[in-house]
Design a protein that fits this description.
Layout lengths: L1 E7 L2 E6 H7 L20 E7 L13 E6 L2 E7 L3 H7 L9 E3 L5 H4 L2 H8 L13 E5 L3 H11 L1 H11 L8 E5 L3 E6 L2 E7 L10 E7 L2 E5 L7 H7 L4 E8 L8 H7 L5 H11 L3 E9 L1 E2 L2 E2 L2 H8 L7 E3 L4 E6 L2 E6 L3
Parallel strand pairs: 2-19, 5-6, 6-7, 7-8, 12-13, 13-14, 14-17
Antiparallel strand pairs: 1-2, 3-4, 3-18, 4-5, 9-10, 10-11, 11-12, 15-16, 18-19
């Protein structure tokens, strides 16, 4: 069973009834699920592959996002399970045209090795890459690329000798930037902006992706930062993280250290209110545990609503957003 709802200002939703009740935190008006239609070549399509954290959760892999536009498949980060989610979408790993790293915490990078090494296997439906993997990011990206190729050297040597994998497919072109426009191809532009994930986590960046007059912005991991507001101002979609804990553990120094690296729900609401995106999306929600269990998502949403009243979605893995001339359509993919 599916339901469709108007989230506000041209945003439509097509999701399972259970997901609609839990994930879309705004009023919905009934409509036909068939209204969503299929995206055309002028659409900007965003699929949230992994919406979780370092926690080992099979239904929420760690942070990874797929952007499809201009005939390209681009990734923002490559957390745990990236390759599995791409496989569920029927996208061979060798068909990824670029990966954009936000920072180098393991829950944002750990799936990159799988994507890289499986991508050069000469099975078209699995890998099939014949050219280098294009990797973009802040300072440290080249070192990551060098380390990956060293880690998989034995596999590379064996597959080149035994399976005829071309050497070019086993290499990584690393592109390092400080900020600004970092990618411009097929009408798709990607702009990098710095964020504050913590004084000792530098660099850390977010991205704005633009295509055909549409845009999506990813804050990545960050504390409250006005640079996210500027990058997200007027975007069709703004994807933001958050972190919260039950009150009974707020005096725990470990908990405090974690929260000092993330944005509170109230402050995320301020970001959304100032940036005024067409659709605000929560992904990479750090829900910490207290004496009686994990902080409820409902509480995080309620706290966000004290400072923001616009369209808001709590994403799940494989939530898909289609941005085109018809507006913004929200779809929920199946696991």
């Amino acid at each position: 069973m599916t339901q469709t709802g108007v989230l506000g200002s041209g945003v439509r939703a097509v999701m399972t009834a259970a997901t609609l009740a839990l994930a879309i935190v705004t009023h919905a008006a009934p409509a036909s699920a068939q209204d969503a239609g299929a995206p055309d070549e002028r659409a900007l399509v965003v699929t949230l592959l992994g919406t979780g954290t370092p926690l080992n959760e099979p239904d929420r892999f760690s942070f990874s996002n797929l952007i499809q536009a201009g005939g390209l498949n681009l990734l923002i980060d490559a957390g745990r399970g990236t390759s599995i989610r791409l496989g569920q979408l029927g996208i061979p790993l060798g068909k990824v045209d670029g990966v954009f790293m936000t920072h180098f915490h393991s829950d944002h990078t750990i799936g990159l090795g799988d994507l890289f090494a499986t991508g050069y296997i000469r099975v078209p439906t699995l890998g099939g890459r014949t050219e280098p993997l294009e990797l973009y990011g802040p300072a440290g990206t080249a070192r990551l690329a060098e380390g990956l190729r060293l880690a998989f050297k034995s596999d590379i040597d064996t597959r080149m000798l035994d399976e005829g994998v071309p050497e070019a497919a086993t290499t990584i072109n690393a592109h390092e930037f400080d900020e600004g426009l970092v990618f411009d191809r097929n009408g798709v532009q990607v702009t990098m902006f710095r964020v504050l994930h913590g004084e000792r986590i530098d660099p850390s960046v977010g991205y704005r992706v633009e295509y055909n007059g549409h845009s999506v912005v990813f804050s990545s991991d960050t504390k409250y930062d006005e640079r996210v507001i500027e990058a997200g101002r007027g975007a069709d979609v703004l994807v933001h993280e958050t972190g919260a804990a039950p009150q009974d553990v707020m005096d725990n120094p470990i908990i405090q250290n974690i929260l000092d690296h993330h944005t509170s729900p109230e402050d995320v609401g301020r970001v959304f209110s100032e940036a005024k995106p067409g659709l605000a999306v929560y992904s990479h929600v750090v829900r910490l545990f207290g004496k009686d269990g994990r902080i409820p998502m409902r509480e995080i949403v309620d706290r966000t609503r004290t400072t923001y009243s616009g369209p808001l979605v709590v994403a799940e893995d494989l939530t898909q957003i289609i941005i085109d001339e018809k507006g913004t359509t929200l779809l929920r993919g199946g696991l």
